[in-house]
Design goal:
The model has no long low-confidence stretch (mean pLDDT about 90). The longest helix is centred in the middle third of the chain and has 18 residues, at about 405-420. The radius of gyration is 34 Å and the shape is flat. Helices cover about 65% and strands about 5% of the residues. The strands form three sheets. It has a five-stranded parallel sheet, sandwiched between helices. A three-stranded antiparallel sheet has the order 8-10-9. The chain contains 44 helices and ten strands. The chain is mostly helical and about 850 residues long. The two termini are about 35 Å apart. Among the domains are: about 10-155, Rossmann fold (3-Layer(aba) Sandwich); about 165-225, no CATH class; about 230-315, Arc Repressor Mutant, subunit A (Orthogonal Bundle); about 790-849, Orthogonal Bundle (Arc Repressor Mutant, subunit A), CATH 1.10.10.10.
């Protein structure tokens, strides 16, 4: 990886070391564990501009030079031969003869006695500034130790990089943002060692395993340790006696391992030796490797047969009744005979914690015997991993061959979900549901799935007719509860029934201290966020989303990405556009090229966030995807798609088109019985400039909840061109938690005050709008007008903005449904008012990027 490796995260330390070496200063000791960057920091400090013209004498402590007097200074100072006692004085004289000398001593803990005395006397006599590095935890000569113990030199402890500094360093080196899970994994593997981080990342980028996807750098496969990093780590590990090697290898394969188990499988003496050498660490109860990369190296060089044998030894000692997953994984990869029952219990447990790749692997092993229950679990995991065709093949065979009606019903129900959400085949899904119902088994599951299908298709009435009472029935399992809760949450969200929404959350297991125990719970969480967003309760949405994201943050597979989408949706609900972009961009990096259906939610939400941020270019391909195709399981969210298109058109300067999309969203919501969505649509229209149509409809919906009430106040204030009322609305939006709407109301107040000849009030309102936008990260059309007021009508500004973005007069006319002559006339008048005659100058005047 031919990229510079900066000292990100060490700026403060770099300044401290450089200051300690200025002329007349005494120097500094830099201490830290191996690989933390002590030598690199020293070299950077000595290369600073303030040290030009100095003579740096670099001495190096080493085991090889330690037996020889002044071995650290060999070849550096012209010291005539003599007995050991005379060498120190001659070395000091030679150093003093250097022009503006600075003495740098690397690895001072390895200095020979005479080199240590030279170092000590240089410091005590202040012959030159001194920079000393040494490794913590290693014994050092007394003369070196006295440098800081006797207060001759200050000591700087250089700690490993923390997680945030590691992520920042990697992003700076790679020149782009890094996926949060990949950044955390890099930090955990390297424990913040810049040396290890540099070698690991270089190998992964060169091997194509760490690569950008949709602009986000992330790991695309399991890491492979480079030969250079293996050499570094093997030097640290050193040669291992057979017993100590057993300790290290057992921990590498089964970490964490109980100390009692490890002592029984090896010996207490070998375990103590491994701990003393810094290879493993324990808290008295369990043992872990002293550094995660030790495990990568040992697993890399360990033979397959040895690894299988050692895993089997550990597996026999584990309590699989309490937690089946560790024992199942070790057994599966060991020389022990297969344990299908254990594999199935572990697969179900892995599913409950959202680890779908592991669940699929374990369920596949359990299903090798043909057990119908294992085949169902395996098919479910495949479906949730977007491997729908494989799941359908299993489920179709099982539905036709199962020995009992209950299994046939469950197979058809899983087929229903797989066919709709994963394979986007709604007609086949309905046929599978009918086949499940025909078995006469699992009636509550059948009803729950039928309601889920209705909600996905935007059919609210049947869900409300049956779903409310189902919430109070004794549902048979978590999956049934999540299906019913999801369907009811969808209906409650779009109708604005927050009481019903809260009931559904409890039934589905999404509470202050719980998260759902199945993957469909992410869909439930997204619908809950939608309900709180539409009602005007973004704080509730944020709390739910954070809990689910935390539960899935470090998992492989789609669970983490779905958690990011839900969290991004919650951020968007609160008008925190910058936060939403960070979360949704990362999710899109993993979902864009996948077959996972959640990418359709991510696409709409990310397009909205980009557009609200005023970023036309990244929003455009996402918006184009919305136009060309959706997913049949997300018809409920069709108004959201239209609102994304409205924000996209507005960001591109097409104000008329944006209002058409917002009005279409409102009409669709009204026709489909989704009044809460209609409120949001009319609110969006007001933010984008609509003054006439919104107030009457919002007046009819004003009792729907907090958002409806504030949206009505906003619409009336804008229709009345009442600047003070708009400022009051901005405050109301801020208290409600919608920062984008708050910023737009303040910006519209600035526009009204300016047009009514109140420049002071306009400036104050514009300043409020900018402060709010700074918190939200939004750059909306209303804000653009407020911060860059121009003597143009709304239509002149719209046409000038489209022209500034490169559209021809003919294209503008087609987009706005007006004549080319009308476009020409508006452009001519805009040019006269702005004092520009060239089309290319419009972009600068309008601030169009």
């Amino acid at each position: 990886m031919e990229r510079p490796w900066p000292l990100t995260g060490r700026d403060e330390e770099l300044r401290e070391v450089a200051a300690a070496l200025r002329p007349g200063a005494v120097g500094i000791v830099v201490a830290g564990p191996p690989g933390v960057g002590k030598t690199r920091l020293a070299r950077e400090a000595l290369a600073a501009p303030g040290h030009r013209g100095t003579t740096v004498v670099w001495a190096h402590g080493s085991l090889a030079a330690r037996p020889y007097p002044l071995g650290a200074f060999a070849g550096l100072l012209d010291v005539p031969a003599g007995d050991a006692g005379e060498l120190v004085g001659r070395a000091l004289d030679a150093l003093a003869r250097q022009p503006r000398p600075v003495l740098a001593v690397d690895d001072a803990h390895l200095l020979d006695e005479h080199s240590a005395i030279v170092l000590h006397r240089v410091v005590v006599r202040r012959l030159a500034p001194v920079l000393v590095t040494l490794r913590t935890g290693e014994p050092a000569p007394d003369t070196v130790t006295s440098l800081w113990k006797d207060d001759h030199l200050p000591r700087l402890e250089l700690a490993p990089l923390d997680a945030a500094a590691t992520a920042g360093l990697v992003a700076r080196v790679l020149g782009g943002p890094v996926e949060s899970r990949s950044a955390r994994r890099l930090w955990r593997l390297t424990e913040g060692s810049p040396l290890f981080l540099r070698h690991l990342l270089a190998g992964e980028v060169a091997g194509g395993r760490f690569a950008p996807a949709s602009g986000i750098w992330r790991w695309t496969s399991e890491p492979a340790i480079s030969p250079q990093l293996v050499d570094l780590l093997e030097q640290q590990i050193g040669r291992l006696a057979p017993g100590v090697q057993d300790v290290v290898d057992l921990v590498a394969l089964a970490e964490p391992v109980a100390v009692a188990t490890l002592s029984a499988l090896t010996s207490p003496a070998d375990l103590e030796a491994a701990e003393e050498r810094g290879l493993v660490r324990t808290d008295g109860l369990v043992a872990r490797l002293a550094h995660p990369l030790y495990g990568e190296v040992r697993r890399e060089v360990m033979g397959t047969l040895r690894a299988r044998r050692l895993r089997g030894r550990v597996a026999r000692t584990l309590d699989v009744a309490t937690d089946p997953i560790p024992g199942a994984v070790l057994t599966l990869d060991s020389d022990l005979p297969p344990a299908p029952g254990l594999f199935l219990r572990a697969a179900e447990a892995a599913t409950r914690v959202y680890d779908l790749p592991l669940a699929e692997r374990l369920a596949r092993a359990a299903a090798a015997t043909g057990d119908p229950a294992a085949r169902l679990v395996h098919a479910a995991a495949l479906s949730w991993l977007s491997r729908g065709d494989e799941a359908e093949a299993i489920l179709d065979r099982l539905a036709g061959s199962a020995p009992d009606s209950g299994t046939r019903a469950r197979a058809q129900l899983h087929r229903t979900g797989n066919l709709l959400w994963t394979l986007a085949r709604p007609d086949d899904a309905r046929r599978a549901l009918a086949a499940a119902e025909a078995t006469g088994a699992a009636p509550l599951h059948v009803v729950g799935m039928s309601l889920a299908l209705a909600a996905a298709g935007g059919e609210v009435a049947p869900v409300l007719a049956r779903g409310r009472e189902l919430l109070h029935e004794e549902l048979p399992d978590d999956l049934a509860r999540i299906l019913v809760a999801s369907a009811v949450s969808a209906a409650a969200a779009v109708t604005g029934d927050v009481g019903l929404l809260d009931e559904a959350a409890v039934v589905g297991g999404l509470t202050a201290d719980r998260v759902p125990t199945a993957i469909p719970g992410f869909g439930l969480a997204d619908l809950q966020v939608l309900g709180h967003r539409l009602a005007g309760r973004p704080d509730r949405a944020d709390g739910q989303a954070r809990r689910l994201q935390a539960a899935s943050a470090d998992l492989p597979g789609p669970a983490r990405l779905m958690g990011l989408v839900v969290a991004g949706h919650a951020a968007l609900a609160g008008g925190r556009v910058g936060d939403a972009l960070a979360l949704l961009r990362e999710a899109w990096g993993g979902l864009a090229d996948s077959g996972h259906e959640f990418r359709f939610r991510c696409r709409t939400l990310l397009a909205t966030a980009w557009a609200q941020a005023g970023e036309v270019a990244p929003a455009a391909p996402l918006l184009a995807g919305i136009v060309t195709g959706g997913h049949p399981a997300y018809r409920l969210h069709a108004p959201d798609d239209l609102l994304a298109l409205a924000w996209g058109a507005a960001a591109a300067g097409a104000a008329t088109e944006s209002l058409r999309h917002a009005a279409a969203a409102a009409d669709l919501a009204r026709e489909s019985g989704a009044p809460a969505y209609e409120v949001l649509a009319w609110q969006t229209a007001v933010q984008l400039g609509e003054a006439a149509a919104a107030p009457p409809r919002l007046a009819a919906l004003a009792e729907l909840g907090p958002r409806a009430a504030v949206a009505l106040a906003h619409a009336r204030a804008w229709a009345d061109q009442d600047g003070e009322a708009l400022l009051a609305t901005a405050d109301a939006w801020a208290r409600l938690g919608d920062l984008v709407a708050a910023g737009d109301a303040a910006a519209q107040a600035a526009d009204v005050h300016r047009r009514h000849g109140r420049p002071g009030s306009a400036l104050n309102a514009a300043a409020l709008a900018e402060r709010t936008a700074g918190r939200s990260g939004a750059r909306t059309p209303a804000l653009a007008v407020a911060v860059r007021p121009l003597p143009l009508t709304a239509r002149e500004r719209e046409i000038a903005a489209l022209a500034a973005r490169g559209l021809s007069n003919k294209a503008i006319a087609a987009r706005l449904a007006v004549s080319v002559r009308t476009v020409e006339g508006h452009l001519y008048r805009a040019g006269l008012k702005l004092g520009v005659s060239e089309r290319s100058a419009l972009a600068d005047v309008l601030g169009v990027g």
